[in-house]
Amino acid sequence: MKLVYCHCSVYNPGGMERVLLNKIKWFVEHRPDWEIIVVTTDQQELPPFYTFPPQVKMVDLGINYSQGNNAPLHCKISGFIKKRALHRQRLTALLMQERADIVVSLYPGESSFIPDIKDGSKKVLELHFNRYFRLQYGRNGLLGLIDRLLSHRDAKLVRRFDGFVVLTQEDAEAWGNLPNISVIPNAAISLGSVSDHEAPNRVIAVGRLDYQKGFDRLIQAWSILMNNPELSGWRLDIFGQGEWHSKLTDMIVQNNLQQSVTINAPVNDIAREYHASSMLVMSSHYEGFPMVMIEAMGCGLPVVSFDFKCGPRDIISQGVNGLVVPDGDIDALARAMSSLMLNGELRRRMGQEALKVTEKYSTESVMKLWLNLFESLCPSCFK
Q: Do residues 307 and 324 make contact, with C-beta atoms less than 8 angstroms apart?
């Protein structure tokens, strides 16, 4: 089997990058005869944030879509069109040369044209967002029109793939009755020993500092909590990087939270930070499947989360291993956090239940689903 994964880059410490790495490491260990290639467009000669197995071939096409993001809109559009043409040309040449059995697009880079590349491979679209992710910003004007048109196009685009993979049943239902759709969640990788929830009075949040992760909403909720003297010893640590760093830092200062809130750079050993925390909070506007959530739960952390699309309803059992509050209800988020912060026994009980996520989303069960999909697309590769 020759397997190709297409992604924008692997130099960021993101959830998609961790998921890709974990799958590839499993394939390298359990299918050592497979040839695996990771193709990127925007690596910019930077080293991968996570270390990939040496057997994996890494190829960057040098498209660099991210360059020119600050240009005027008309320049950005014309530049994108030129780069998309170059992307198609270079990826076509590579796939015609490699003649892979299966090519997986992690979306959205090459997804619009990759089904048209006639290299003999089966094409799989692996969606790490959700059906309505383009509409989450609620933009108006030209950008809003583009969002709606692209969302409508997506419904037609996904049908062109031999396989279309989403991460939750909730999202699968939003796409409708598609003949090529499969639900394959991310695996809950064991990250070691369980936090004892005793010593640290610390809340942790992890993710890119941007609109999607909604850390501004979390900081607003934290500001409410810090009015309660009983919670004065608690800290909030956010781990991430991104374009909202200055905005979030300003919010912390404006709300006089410098003594209790810290924005930390991403770390390679996030498990160590989970183990030094008492609970995880997720304030996202949307997710495909919240990898951070199942990682933290796998370390024994209870979770407080907005009811965003998609993931919380699939993963959290309300009041058992975490708490879910209406999306955007800042006061409700603060109340749910407070109920756990003030009750150590409740945190311990929910933390023990959270550990069971590793059974439902075990690596073996998830990778079996991937093998089943690949075998259905390329039976000859499994003889």
A: yes
For residue 108, with 0-12 CB atoms within 10 Å meaning exposed, 13-18 middle and 19 or more buried, which class applies?
middle
In the three-class reduction of DSSP (H, G, I as helix; E, B as strand; rest coil), residue 112 is classed as coil
pLDDT single digits (tens) 151-190? 888 989 999 999 999 998 889 999 998 999 999 999 887 6
Domain 202-360 annotated CATH 3.30.1330.40: no
Hey, what are 8's tokens? 């924008």
What gap in Å lies between CA 204 and CA 142, rounded to an integer?
37
The C-alpha atoms of residue 184 and residue 104 are separated, in whole angstroms, by 14
Whether residue 257 has pLDDT greater than 90: yes
Interior angle at CA 225, CA 224 and CA 228, nearest 5: 110
* 29, 34, 40, 45 alpha-carbon torsion, rounded to 10°: 70
Q: What is the pLDDT, as a whole number, of residue 10?
A: 95
Sign of the Cα torsion 295, 296, 297, 300 reads positive
CATH topology of domain 2-186+362-382: Rossmann fold (3.40.50)
Residue 187: C-alpha distances to residues 40, 99, 317 (Å) = 23, 29, 18
d(CA 32, CA 242): 36
Q: State the Cα–Cα distance between residues 18 and 380, nearest whole angstrom.
A: 29
pLDDT for 196 equals: 52
Which residues lie below 8 Å from residue 207, measured CB to CB, with a gap of 6+?
15, 213, 215, 239, 240, 284, 292
- Residue 263's SS3 state is strand
Count the neighbouring beta carbons within 10 Å of the beta carbon of residue 359: 9
Q: What are the residue boundaries of the structural domains of the chain, listed by start? A: 2-186+362-382, 202-360
